[in-house]
Design goal:
Structural class: alpha+beta
Shape: elongated
Radius of gyration: 21 Å
Largest sheet: 4 strands, antiparallel
Helix content: 40-55%
Oligomer: single chain
Keywords: Membrane, Transmembrane, Transmembrane helix
Organism: Kribbella speibonae
Number of strands: 7
Protein name: PH domain-containing protein
Length: 169
Amino acid sequence: MVMGNQDIGAWDAELHRSGRVIFAVRRALAFGGLVVVLVLAGIPILSVLRDLDDRGTWFTIRVALLAVLFAACITLAVLFLFGHPRVTVNATGIRFAWWRKVPWSEFEGTTLVTPSSGYAAPYLTITSTRGRKLHIPQTNVEDLPAFAAWLTKLNTQHRLKTTSTLNMS
């Protein structure tokens, strides 16, 4: 099940059931990016194939560009197949990809960013008290305002649980 297309009720149920909710990149969007890169890579491929007899400086530059585009295609294909980068929400906090994390104890808030450019998609910025920021794109979660409200609710629950645990001791 693609959690990024679900609603808050499904997220709560999954968090209660498994202890975490994983928002993988929605495959249709990753596939769209892969198609764009393949189309863009087709232009230098045709150029390099046409000029195979002439191995001058421009040929070398085009081959280097082709290698970069090929690497981008491979990367996007891996993202497409494995649904990375993922957003994981669990009892300890929020993690984006495998290296960026904001623990609930450092959660400061969320901000919905809607770029003025028509080419960029909206994203959610999660800030921590230490100044770390996670930028969650719509490729992971379709309804960013609902996601922001859900994270705020979870943070409130975590703070209440932590406060009641401290008061009991």
